[in-house]
DNA sequence: ACGAAATAG
DNA sequence: CGTTCTATTTCGT
């Protein structure tokens, strides 16, 4: 077939997506606490490098990932603060995330790292589009709250707020004669909403952000970079030019280095570079991981002879790569990204703590480290997974007994995971084969960790002996001979508490916590004794479960109390046998979502 | 469910 | 200390 030239993927430009990237985030957090820093060259340090610096410092030649000594040489007056305790950054990120969420009507807000947030404002924009008077766009009103038409701001809908791509697309002279298409109008609305939220963010919280507005996550994230800091850019169609959103999106994405496309990381970009260059791409062995000496652009890959979704699949598919990777990348090369902005999350999917070591090869050290990690992890669980008990039961907060509202678990992780990175043995020639391979082992998380009447220290010690040591022995059966360069501890598989989230429609279908009895049945209390002796002396306990005091868990939290074998659907109230509830819940998820 | 891999900040 | 630490998603089994 001569005409079987592969067509570009179909665009779906029905959404309006805003991407936020807080400017020099770590610096901004410190500046929030000490505003005098704002006018000074200021940087945040982790280990021996500058992880980020404010724009005053950047103007003097400082940059991210710079060695401290280089920074001080270039700019002796620089103020440097240590940023190794990331809890303040995490807290600030959470606050700003909730603030941005308050502007969504559909709850679609997704965080990436601490300093980036996407929001899907399609419905907000749609509503306001319907409210526009197309004869008087100059004096428009943007309603920001679904429930109150008075909440909002005045704006001029004859143009975009902030910058546009392409730069001249902003137009602005469609006063009377020209009919403006809906996509243009919707993007303008998105740009004005973004401007409003940026201003609120700055005035109410003291944070500035760089923002991108487009019809999908990919384009919104990339286009923001055109104007930073504290500015915004919208990808627009060209007035009166058919299909111009596709054209403009393509010209924009084409200029990017292939590895700069979100979703195309080190492995995929190397494969694509090798394909285009017909040889392996040279890697920049500098400080930045994944750096390349080559400059292979999206255009190079996209216009390479014979490229197609099928060809990309052949090229990129392999162990670890997603199914449909060819079609996915084909879409990215064309600025097409149909992935949804995730729903707001109140708890993380996973909490993990890790530390790296020059050398870790003895049991006493290991036990100390594992216990320390366990303490940190349990502390983090209490910070991130504990919430106020919002009880309608009037009695709970009236009494003057210290005014303590009860803390309850918002989610229960079901799984505990221990990961290590064994240090490779030396080769005969004395060099180390470099391998960053990790190995992990998971087990049910013992439910005693949810006890709030015991201290974190107590629970950490208990967790060490009842779970972590057995798990470690599973990973490293040999008594010795191992040497670790990293240990990671994580809890995952969150089971969230049901109830009324805000936003539209109670999202979480309450799921009964599987009875935790038997969770410990695979654990044996293991006594490694002191140091390296008597490792094999293992004290078996038939029923550890009997020893475990499970408190604060279970009592009516998950179950509606009916113990007749049936469950009540948290959504529609239907009473069903337990075995039918899983499928029933799935029905709701599909039906509502 | 579990373990590994890829990706990202 | 080779690439620190944390988090999400997806795949194969």
Write structural notes for this entry.
- The chain is an alpha+beta fold.
- The chain has 15 helices and 20 strands.
- It has helices spanning 25-33, 55-59, 68-74, 87-101, 122-131, 182-205, 217-224, 244-254, 266-277, 298-302, 309-316, 325-333, 363-385, 456-475, 578-592, and strands at 17-22, 42-46, 49-53, 66-67, 79-82, 109-112, 116-120, 140-145, 148-155, 163-165, 209-214, 232-235, 350-356, 386-388, 407-409, 411-422, 439-444, 484-496, 566-568, 575-577.
- It has a 6-stranded mixed beta sheet with strand order 6-7-1-11-12-10. The chain has a 4-stranded mixed beta sheet with strand order 4-3-2-5. Strands 13-18-16-17 form a 4-stranded antiparallel beta sheet, with helices on one face.
- Strand 6 and strand 7 form a beta hairpin.
- Helix 5 (122-131) crosses helix 6, helix 11 (309-316) crosses helix 12 and helix 13 (363-385) packs across helix 14 (456-475).
- The chain is globular.
- The protein starts with 16 loop residues before the first strand and ends with a helix.
- The structure holds a DNA duplex (9 and 13 nucleotides).
């Amino acid at each position: 077939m001569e005409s079987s030239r592969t067509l570009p993927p179909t665009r779906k430009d029905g959404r309006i997506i805003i991407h936020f990237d807080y400017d020099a985030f770590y610096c901004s957090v410190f500046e929030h606490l000490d505003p005098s820093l704002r006018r000074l060259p200021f940087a945040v340090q982790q280990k021996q490098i500058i992880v980020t610096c404010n724009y005053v410092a950047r103007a003097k030649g400082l940059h991210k990932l710079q060695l401290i000594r280089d920074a001080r040489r270039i700019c002796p007056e620089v103020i440097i603060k240590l940023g190794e305790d990331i809890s303040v950054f995490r807290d600030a990120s959470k606050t700003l995330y909730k603030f941005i969420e308050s502007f969504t009507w559909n709850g679609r807000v997704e965080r990436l790292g601490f300093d980036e947030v996407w929001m899907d404002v399609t419905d907000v924009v749609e509503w306001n589009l319907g409210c526009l008077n197309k004869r008087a766009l100059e004096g428009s009103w943007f309603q920001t709250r679904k429930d109150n038409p008075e909440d909002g701001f005045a704006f001029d809908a004859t143009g975009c707020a902030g910058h546009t791509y392409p730069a001249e697309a902003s137009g602005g002279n469609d006063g009377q004669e020209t009919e403006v298409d809906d996509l243009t109008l919707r993007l303008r609305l998105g740009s004005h909403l973004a401007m409003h939220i940026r201003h609120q963010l700055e005035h109410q919280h003291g944070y500035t952000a760089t923002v991108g507005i487009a019809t999908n996550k990919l384009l919104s994230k990339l286009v923001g970079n055109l104007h930073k800091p504290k500015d915004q850019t919208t990808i627009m169609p060209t007035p009166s030019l058919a299909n111009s959103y596709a054209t403009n999106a393509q010209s924009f994405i084409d200029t990017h280095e292939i590895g700069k496309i979100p979703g195309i990381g080190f492995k995929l970009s190397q494969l694509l570079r090798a394909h285009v260059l017909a040889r392996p791409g040279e890697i920049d062995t500098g400080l930045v991981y994944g750096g390349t000496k080559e400059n292979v652009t999206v255009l190079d890959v996209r216009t390479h002879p014979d490229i197609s979704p099928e060809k990309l699949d052949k090229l990129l598919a392999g162990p670890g790569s997603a199914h449909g990777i060819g079609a996915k990348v084909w879409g990215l090369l064309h600025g097409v990204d149909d992935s949804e902005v995730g729903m707001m999350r109140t708890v993380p999917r996973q909490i993990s703590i890790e530390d790296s070591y020059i050398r870790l090869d003895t049991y006493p050290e290991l036990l100390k480290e594992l216990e320390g990690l366990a303490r940190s992890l349990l502390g983090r669980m209490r910070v991130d997974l504990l919430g106020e008990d919002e009880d309608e039961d009037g009695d709970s907060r009236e009494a003057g007994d210290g005014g303590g509202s009860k803390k309850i678990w918002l989610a229960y992780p079901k799984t505990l995971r221990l990961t290590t990175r064994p240090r490779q043995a030396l080769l005969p020639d004395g060099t180390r084969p470099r391998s960053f391979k990790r190995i992990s082992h998971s087990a049910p998380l013992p439910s005693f960790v949810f006890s709030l009447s015991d201290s974190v220290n107590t629970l950490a010690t208990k967790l060490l002996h009842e779970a972590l040591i057995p798990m470690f022995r599973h990973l490293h059966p040999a008594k010795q001979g191992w040497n670790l360069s990293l240990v990671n501890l994580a809890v995952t598989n969150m089971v969230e508490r049901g109830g009324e989230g805000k936003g539209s429609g109670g999202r979480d279908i309450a799921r009964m916590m599987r009875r935790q009895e038997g969770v410990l049945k695979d654990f044996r209390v293991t006594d490694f004794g002191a140091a390296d002796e008597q490792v094999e002396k293992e004290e078996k306990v038939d029923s550890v479960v009997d020893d475990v005091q499970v408190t604060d868990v279970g009592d009516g939290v998950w179950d509606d109390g009916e113990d007749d074998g049936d469950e009540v659907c948290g959504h529609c109230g239907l009473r069903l046998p337990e075995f039918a509830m899983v499928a029933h819940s799935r029905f709701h998820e599909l039906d509502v979502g």
